[in-house]
Design brief:
Elements lengths: L2 H21 L6 H8 L3 H7 L3 H24 L5 H16 L8 H8 L6 H21 L7 H22 L4 H15 L3
Length: about 190
């Protein structure tokens, strides 16, 4: 693949990701993608057969980038306990960032009804990766049921994300961190 071809493909994906995050999948049509990206419709179709294919590729790219960012930032704390609590500080920094519109995976999963829709499956894989990372951290603690704790922490994170988006309450991350601290203190050893 030539550099120009790669650059065009990346421009299409970056634009699609931005539009999907801002407007949702259904509101992101090919006309808007052409207009916003400045890439001709014919060129877009050279790279992707359908709008759904573009959306899936853009969401997969976001998943990789977001998880890498989240893991890197969360892992800046020194201990597993501190990394778990740091996940909530990282979420808060995301909530307070310019253009925050909630979780694109929650948003897009809500737009499609079929549980086997490729977009819904991408969202599910993203949440599974977040859960797996949380399990990775809880398994480093000397506790009896690390997977059960990870499940509870995931619910706290998802609740904080939804509350921040729907209610505009970015302190939801602080409240979730406080509950996480209680869970960590009460976890059976």
């Amino acid at each position: 693949m030539s550099t120009q071809t790669h650059d065009t493909r990346e421009k299409i994906l970056a634009t699609a990701e931005q539009l999907i995050y801002q407007n949702g999948i259904h509101a992101t049509g090919m006309d808007l993608l052409v207009k916003t990206s400045g890439v001709a419709r014919k060129s877009i179709y050279r790279h992707f057969a359908t709008k759904d294919e573009i959306a899936a590729a853009a969401l997969n790219a976001r998943d990789v980038r977001w998880m890498q960012w989240f893991r890197t930032e969360s892992n800046k704390a020194d201990t597993p306990h501190a990394r778990i609590l740091n996940m909530f500080a990282v979420l808060k920094s995301w909530f307070e960032s310019e253009g925050f519109r909630g979780c694109v995976f929650i948003n897009t999963a809500g737009e499609v009804g079929d549980p086997d829709d490729p977009i819904r499956l991408i969202a599910k894989r993203h949440k599974q990766k977040l859960f797996d990372y949380t399990v990775e951290l809880t398994e480093q603690l000397d506790i009896e049921q690390p997977t059960a704790l990870a499940r509870q922490l995931l619910i706290l994170m998802e609740g904080a994300i939804t509350t921040a988006r729907v209610m505009g309450d970015y302190s939801a991350a602080d409240s979730a961190r406080d509950v996480a601290q209680l869970l960590l203190q009460q976890a059976p050893l």
